[in-house]
Amino acid sequence: MVAEVKLDSNRVIADKVVTTTCPYCGVGCNLQLHVKDDFIFKVTSPFDSPVNHGNLCVKGRFGYDFIYHPKRVTTPLVRRYLLEGKPKPEGREQVFAVSTDGKPISNSLLSNLWDWVETDWDTALNITADKLVEIYKRDGSDAMAVYCCAKATNEDNYLLQKMFRALFRTNNVDHCTRLCHAGSVVALQKAIGSSAMSNTASQVIQNDVFIVTGSNTGENHPIIALQMKEAVQKHGAKMIVVDPRRIDLVDFAEMWLPLKPGTNVPIFSAMAHVIVKENLVNWEFVNSRTEGFSEYVESLEKFTPEYAEELSGVPAEDIRKAARMYAAAKNGAIYWGMGISQLSHGTASAMALIHLAFLTGHIGREGTGLNPLRGQNNVQGASDMGAMPFHYPGYMRVDNEENARKWEQAWNIEPGGLSRKLGLTTTEILSHAHEGGVRALYIMGENPMMSEPNLNETRKHMTQLEFLVAQDLFINESGAFADVFLPATPFAEKDGTFTNTDRRVQRVRTALAPRGLARPDWKILCDLATRLEVRLGREKSARWDYESPEEILREMASVNKDYAGVTYERIEKVGLIYPVPDLNHSGTPTLFTETFPSGRGKFHVLDYVPVMEEADDEYPFILTTGRLLEHWHGGTMTRNSALNEAYPEARVEMHPADAEMHGIMNNMPVRVTSRRGEIVLRATVTEKTSVGVVFIPWHFAEAAANLLTNDALDPQALIPEFKACAVQVFPARESELPNPDIVVARGRY
Fold first, then answer.
1. Which of 7, 81, 250, 745 could cross-link to 113 by cystine, CB 3.0-4.6 Å?
2. The CATH fold of domain 119-179+378-577
């Protein structure tokens, strides 16, 4: 007998369910957006997803309501002085409030000429085109610069870099990879000729032993962390965690090496020392697939486990044990995050990991590999699309004549028209914002006023720009400095593709109509580029009349062979892992099975270089920064969502021993100072961090961690040292908190 089931008449039945890709971290989880009356009321995930198998983190499941936030900008905005045709006022103002009636903002302490005023698209785009062309004709290519966006689609990023290269003839093109994995990119390029993740995250269940270092995977890539835990609990893998903080993965690890921040090179070089001295080397791999071994081995002599212990605080015997475990594994792998790369020696830190894989042969096979976990949802794709100052799409050097000619032909540009000059990086663009330097900056979806180090200095640079365009969802801390604001659509209101950390190219699909007058990024760029081309008087058009994002991808793939076999039809269901060299190719989950792009893998001699700023009597703590499970980057999306209720304020984590010594208790307001700035926030007293180390997330503008960080750069990758600077911590008053009245109704601290 079949029981009768009564359906709830009040149950919401979706008008449609749209499958798309998550807009947060690099995992690239598949989402199902359940839509009723043009409103997303639920998010699920298909259980047959090869990426996340139906699992979602808190951001993926609940972090979409920023789409409906009342502060979201859905109408183009320009500064009053531009609308009124007046000269630019002295001193750039940071303005968040918007005049909705065309009149000056009431009770504003700011110059009325700096007020925001809503306008139409034609007006906003014409003003933008006129000002950009004016500056270009007056000051040339070097005066123009652009920040592309790792949160935007492949198609958006391709178009934006194309616009600045084809029309303004500049390679001053970069995006946030400079601030996250640049050290890894440079190291991998120098060692093997490719910066991509060598395997897929799902292969972790094939690992016998794997190292996780510089990655709080449980908070930054939660779904990959689930797979790591499964590898340990269900498949018997052994995990080695190397991190100064007791991250949640430590509870599943065979070993935890709590190193002092910035001592990665000694730790991993000491492991290499043990592997060589105890003859645990895979000689067949070293002899057949690498070069530079002899010189490298000589440099290892000083990196004894005892030497590493002295520098890092990790016991020498633990270093030996970890080295033996990794070397003896049938399948060993390394997964790392920005705790490796965001150092003034980030390139060397990543290189030390690469050496371990070379010595043991743990690369080029399933269940092995060198796997840098990409931060943002499309940081891999944005890099693939050429959103970097040294490369066209497909990592083709801009100073190579053959490469430049290929793109000149693809973009219908006269021979010699594209610049062969290497461009400025993200960390250099704003420091060049002065007379005779960068005068015009276009920012799509990025927020340097949160993501740059030493923000007090960044603020000075922002005020020195002549013209700034922001293309975004909200007026964030950087957009508040802009002259023109162009409202874009979020992931749920546009089509395109993202490329995740696995190199998997996946669809992004429209689920909702654009709010207000907002437009997809690619449409904004096409419209603007057409106006620019007319004003520049170009005899030949580089073509901006695309009818769909798919057309844009095909143009890029016609030159970038890694994407040659990627089409929207082929990635309709599960995506494809590039390289996909032709339309019959099924993708390449595992790279370097027979050779490296550079031929042989190259060992490099390394030395230990301390972080630029060590703890001392005046500043006795080392500050390291990072992300939280509930938030994302500068908070533009998550802090305008329900996720902000779960973690609504910045906190500094301190070890109980340090807290007791300085008279600090849990939840107490404290002042954290460095040689560059200070912030006031509450303390969380926890054994999660090590003695002498404090941790601050960088999502909170009101207590911005990057007011404290130094702007020392890795000389090779030009990436800032976010993971180590000297600070002091003092008790503070409740009244000094930026939000003393905040009430935590729910959350996890």
1. 81
2. Rossmann fold (3.40.50)
